[in-house]
Each structure stands twice: as structure tokens, then as C-alpha cells.
Description:
Elements: H1 2-20, E1 23-30, H2 38-58, E2 62-68, H3 79-85, E3 90-94, H4 118-131, H5 134-143, E4 145-160, E5 174-177, E6 191-194, H6 197-206, E7 211-214, H7 216-221, E8 230-247, H8 248-253, H9 256-290, E9 294-297, H10 300-308, H11 313-323, H12 328-341
Parallel strand pairs: 1-2, 1-3, 5-6, 5-7, 8-9
Antiparallel strand pairs: 3-8, 4-7, 4-8
Helix pairs in contact: 2-9, 4-9, 4-12, 11-12
Amino acid sequence: MHAKGFLAGVLALASMGAANADTFTLRIGSGHPSGPSVYVSDVEKFFVPEVKRRVAAETKHKIEFVEAYGGSLAGVADTLEAVQNGLLDVGAYCFCFEPAKLFLHNFPYYAPFGPQDSVTAISAARAVYDKNPWLSEQFEKQYGQVLLGLHGWDDYHLGTKDAWKDVKDLKGYKIGGAGPNLPWIAYAGAVPVQSTLPEGYMSLQTGVYSGWLMFPSAYLGFKFYEPAPYYTLIGFGAMPVNGLTISSRTLNRLPEDVRKIVREVGKAYEERAGASLNARQKAGLDGLKTVGAKITEIQPAVRTEWAKSLADFPGRQAKDADKRGMPGTAVMKSYLDAVAATGHRWPDPYRID
């Protein structure tokens, strides 16, 4: 009886262990494709395999991912909602395509000519998030998801179909952009057109607009240099305005040891973002030279005048956010302070009352 009881106990424990060794399948996606979009490439090439590896190595569970990039499950303006409603468990997206819901999360766009180095830009943004918990809390309180890590775009410049020498040459010129960055071109008297990367090539080719505010990694990756071969280095700055989020419901149903790994890999995803973006900035510029794009650089004096024309932009956006019930002034001041702490020198320092 004793031996039989012992054997029954062993079998019961083995059965419990087998029952508790679960495989979890998560849907992960982005409106942008991997490859030309650095933040999505880091999801596909780092976050997904690293979570799978660590969960298999450090727990008795397994995680599998159904990957849906390039808008196959959710477009660039739908990814936040796709995570919120359960279509995706994990989503990577630019806050720029949520101009109302994530208005304040686009704060780096509201202070152009900031750090051109992405490592510096990401670190400054992280300092702002740490000082202003409201930014992270909004994802969970309003949209049922947890921010796992920040990412961004590398340094922005301007690509055009035609050559130009003076800013006044851009007057009346139609230029596309993500939305929050379109006010940058007001100084030039250009006509802003809100657009997205997936539609950029065709729009440039057909004349919907004749220029794009774009970083070199995507300008090369999406082959915008074909319809618009003139690329002017302006240095509007790297923009840490992308994020990787996971549904709160999904995260909470995972075992504690798996949740811990997902959060840690999300943090590591953010920590590698700056270096990934810097590498792709260089590769993008080198690639554009190789394919024959006409690369020039704006004169420092013109850049300074351009920055002066946007002197009130951060304060204006801060007040707009305040009116929306968001801590706009606090966040914008935090960002200017965080950038100053990195040693970056603005062409024309911003001030917020």
C-alpha cells in the first residue's frame, strides 16, 4: 500500500508538472514592415526570439508568436486599438499616428532640432517618462495595455523631387510627414500633407506631394530616392516616439516568471534602440550615396533661423496639452531639461513660460 501510494503521488506530481508546463501563443504586430522600419526590425530580430529563448531556458513554459508586420493585422493608425480590443496581444507603433489619444506622448516632435544621436534622444525621453509617470500610466488606464519599451526614428532630414538652394524655394511646395512634425515646415512656407510611410512612394511618384520629412533609414528602405532623389541634411533630430506595448489582459494571464521575462526583454528592447537607430542612420546615408541620391547639407545659419521660427512651438503644444487635461507644461519642461542635461545645444534655445 505504501509503495502504491508513493507511486500514485509521483504520478500525480508529474501530471501537475505537465499541466503547468504551458505553451502561450501571442499575436504580435505593427503597421510598418520589418526591414526598412528599425523599431519593427528590433521586434522581429530581438524581442521575439529573445522572449522565446529566455522563457524556454528559464521557465517550464514556452512562448510562440504569430507575427503580423506591415499592416497584415493592423495598420499604422490602428495598432494601439488592435492591442486594446484584443486583435493583437503585443503591438509596436508610432505615437505620431494617434494625434488625439497620444497627443502628449509626441513631445519630442514639439521641440525639433534636438539630439541627432538616437542614444542621447532615447535616454532623454526615458528621463521624461520616469519623471512623469502619467505618460506610462495612460497606456494602462485608458487603453488596457502596458508600455514595455520605447523606440524611435533616427535623425530627420528632408527629401524632395527637385533641387533647392534656399528655404524660400520651398514656398508652396507640398511636403508629406507623419503629422506632429508637419509644423516644422511652416517656416519654409511649404504645404503640409499628412501621410504614412507605406503610401509615400506612390504619393511622391504621382505628385500628391513632392517632398518628405524623413530619416535616411526609411528614405532608403522605402526607395523614396527613386521619385525624389534630392536629400538635404537638416538635422531636425532623432525622435523617440515609438513604443512596444502588451495587452494588460494578456500580460496578467501569463505566469509570473514569464511576465518578468517579457518586461525585462521589453526594457532591453528600449536599451538597444538608440544604437540600432544610429547604425541604420549611417547605413541609410551610405546607401543613399551608393544608389545615387543627391545629398547636400543645409547651412548652419539657415538651420538656426529655421529653429528660431519655431521658438514658440514647444510652449504652444504644452498649453494645448494642458487644455486637454494632460500635464503638457510639466512634460515639455522635463524634456527640455533632460535634453539640456545631455549637453546638447539647441540652435536657438526654447523657453516655456
